[in-house]
TrEMBL record:
Highest taxon above the source species: Bacteria
InterPro entries the record matches: DUF455, Ferritin-like_SF, UCP012318
Top-level taxonomy: Bacteria, Pseudomonadati, Pseudomonadota, Betaproteobacteria, Burkholderiales
One Pfam family recorded for the sequence: DUF455
Organism: Massilia mucilaginosa
Protein name as catalogued: DUF455 family protein
Length: 266
C-alpha cells in the first residue's frame, strides 16, 4: 500500500524543479493527494534544500525592473510582453507558496494546506498565461523579467512573521490594486481572453492575501505582538516598498484588511 504524501517534503521537491511544466504537474499531484485525503504533514521536520532555491529555467533573463521594457498594447508583441510579465509574477508566486509550505516548521496543519491551495491556484494562473502567450506566438522566457517578488521571499526566509507580513499582505496585495487597470487596458486592446484570465487571477488573489492576513494575525497573537505596530517595524527593517495608490479598497477589505488598516490606504 502506497504511503501518503508528506506535503512539506514534496513541496520542497516541487520548488527545486526548474522546468515550469514539470513543476506545475508536480503541484497538481500534491493537490490531488490533498483532495483524496492521501497526505500527511510532518510539522516538526527541518529540511535541507539540496540545490539552489527556487528551481527555474535558464530563461527568462533576469534584469533590473527598469530594463524589462515597455508594454505597449498597440502591437501583439506589446501585449505578449505584458502577458509574459504577468506569467513571470505567477511563476514566482507559485514558488513563494511552495517555499511558505516547506520552509517553516511547527505550524498547524491548516497553514500548510492553505499554502498548498495557493500553490495550486498560482500554478493554474501561470499555466493559463503561458498558454495564452502561445496563442500570441510567444513562450515563457522569450522576454526579460525582473525578480523583485522573489527577493523579498529570500529576505524573509528566517522569520515566518516577516514572510506573512511582507510577501502576501504587502507585495501580493499590490496585485489587488494593479489588476483592474491592467484588465481595462488589455480589454481595450481587444484581448478578451487575457482579460478573462485576469478576472480569475483577481478573484483568487483576494483569497491568497486573506490567507496571508489570517496567518500573520495568528502568528502575532502567538508572539504577543500588535499586528499594526509589528507590521510598521517589519516594513522598516526589511525595507519593504512604500505602497502607492490608487488602492482597491473593496478587494483589500475582502482580503481581510481591517478597517483601521484600510484608513492607511484611503
Amino acid at each position: 500500500m502506497a504511503q501518503p504524501l508528506e506535503l512539506r517534503a514534496h513541496a520542497l521537491q516541487c520548488l527545486l524543479e526548474p522546468d515550469p511544466a514539470t513543476k506545475t504537474a508536480a503541484i497538481a499531484v500534491l493537490a490531488q493527494a490533498h483532495l483524496t485525503g492521501d497526505w500527511r504533514v510532518d510539522n516538526g521536520a527541518v529540511f535541507d534544500a539540496a540545490r539552489p532555491i527556487p528551481g527555474r529555467p535558464e530563461r527568462p533573463q533576469l534584469v533590473p525592473p527598469r530594463l524589462v521594457g515597455r508594454r505597449s498594447m498597440v502591437t501583439v508583441e506589446g501585449r505578449a510582453m505584458l502577458v509574459h510579465s504577468l506569467a513571470h509574477i505567477e511563476f514566482n508566486a507559485m514558488n513563494l507558496a511552495l517555499d511558505a509550505l516547506w520552509r517553516f516548521p511547527d505550524l498547524p496543519d491548516g497553514y500548510y494546506t492553505d499554502w498548498l491551495r495557493v500553490a495550486k491556484e498560482e500554478a493554474l494562473h501561470f499555466s493559463m498565461l503561458a498558454a495564452h502567450l502561445g496563442v500570441l506566438g510567444y513562450g515563457y522566457g522569450d522576454f526579460p523579467a525582473h525578480d523583485s517578488l522573489w527577493e523579498m521571499v529570500e529576505k524573509t526566509k528566517a522569520d515566518v512573521v516577516a514572510r506573512m507580513a511582507l510577501v502576501p499582505r504587502t507585495l501580493e496585495a499590490r496585485g489587488l490594486d494593479a489588476i483592474p487597470p491592467l484588465r481595462a487596458k488589455i480589454a481595450q486592446a481587444g484581448d478578451m481572453a487575457a482579460a478573462a484570465i485576469l478576472d480569475i487571477i483577481l478573484r483568487d488573489e483576494v483569497g491568497h492575501v486573506e490567507i496571508g492576513n489570517r496567518w500573520y494575525r495568528y502568528l502575532c497573537q502567538q508572539r504577543g505582538l500588535d499586528p499594526q505596530m509589528a507590521y510598521a517595524e517589519l516594513a522598516l527593517r526589511y525595507e519593504a516598498p512604500v505602497l502607492k495608490g490608487p488602492f482597491n479598497i473593496d478587494a483589500r477589505r475582502r482580503a481581510g484588511f481591517t478597517e483601521a488598516e484600510l484608513i492607511d490606504f484611503s
